[in-house]
Amino acid sequence: MWQAAVGNALVLSKGKQSRALINPRLLTLVTLDAYKTCLSRARRALASGTFPTTVLSLMEDDIRTTLPSIHLFIPDKGPMYQDLRDMLCAWVVSRSDEGLGYVLGVAKIAAMILLNMPAEHGFIVLRNLLERHCLRSFYGGMATKDDVEAYYRIFDTLLADGMPKIYFNFKQHQVSPAAYLPDWIVPLFLDHLPFEACARVWDVIMLEGDAFLYRAALAILGVLEPRLFFPDKKELLELLRGENKAALEVARRDGRLLNNGKYEIYGLDEESLWERIDSMAEWWRESTWKRLIERELPDL
To answer: What GO annotations for molecular function exist for this entry (predicted)?
Structure first.
């Protein structure tokens, strides 16, 4: 389903794309060639010692914190570790012509995709997914800084409209979306949500795109709302990072395993998240999302 939902427009030239619409087998051949080409370039760079060591170090750090509860991607031990490393190396090569480097968090997305399809197909989904405008902005470094700022303003407006108490509390403590939104969006919530909740969110993101990214992010704040009214900024930021000391202590005392999303300590699970998403139907409007995009990103 994810392959069909994300598509492959990025990789195919116009000529190949039109033929692929007629001949699906050609589409498969082109996707396989794209992965093989990038992976071959990456392997040559690794063999010659020209693959940047700083990138390799970031990549290994990223992999070490990727879905630790399922033990499939443990460096040098996990049965899917090499597939993940290969895909990430190929992804780095595919972005190198644009001068873009590694971004911490992409290992989580690549791993989630690998759980659902082979690497050669997963690579195409990864590339196209991360070229959707919102994710492209957060993965684009300084070149897309202005777009990221626009997305922060959009989020603030939606938060003010739908959850004014949270919005004014954040304003009082001078907590902007920049303090928490990248940590959610870059790994597509995999660092913070339990795996089952995240898998369900992903299904809808693949189908509906950037708008649902924001609905899910707003729903997370909705679930956390009773905990968000701290007297000082430091405690509020600790909570948003999933590091609230009181909640951690309670979770440890209850004997809960804390390796399945940082917000597990707050009791945030698939059911509570989806209840909040459903309740947002009272005020969420796709027309508002589109109007804000047109206002803040007129060239999109």
So the answer is: GTPase activator activity; small GTPase binding
Which residues are within 8 A (CB) of 103 and not within 5 positions of it... i.e. 6 or more apart? 139, 186
Residue 44 lies in domain: 2-131
Query: Does 175 lie in the same domain as 115?
Result: no
| Tokens representing residue 149 in the block | 């700022």
DSSP string computed for the chain: -HHHHH--TTTS-HHHHHHHHH-HHHHHHHHHHHHHHHHHHHHHHHHHT-S-HHHHHHHHHHHHTSSGGG-SS-TTTSTTHHHHHHHHHHHHHHHHTTT----TTHHHHHHHHHTTS-HHHHHHHHHHHTTSHHHHHHTSGGGGHHHHHHHHHHHHHHHHHH-HHHHHHHHHTT--GGGTHHHHHTTTTTTTS-HHHHHHHHHHHHHHTHHHHHHHHHHHHHHHGGG---SSHHHHHHHHTT--HHHHHHHHHTT----S-GGGGGT--HHHHHHHHHHGGGT--HHHHHHHHHHH-TT-
Q: What is the pTM of this model?
A: 0.90
Q: Which two tokens stand for residue 269?
A: 């699970």
- 156 within some domain: yes
pLDDT for the residue numbered 202: 96
Per-residue model confidence as pLDDT tens digits over 202-247: 999 999 999 999 999 999 999 999 999 988 999 999 999 999 988 8
* CATH code for the domain in which residue 7 is found: 1.10.8.270
**Same domain for 180 and 104:** no
* Tokens describing residue 139: 């993965």
- Whether 136 is covered by a domain: the verdict is no
Q: What pLDDT sits at residue 24?
A: 45
Within this chain, do residues 248 and 220 fall inside the same structural domain, yes or no?
yes
Cβ–Cβ < 8 Å for 222, 279: yes
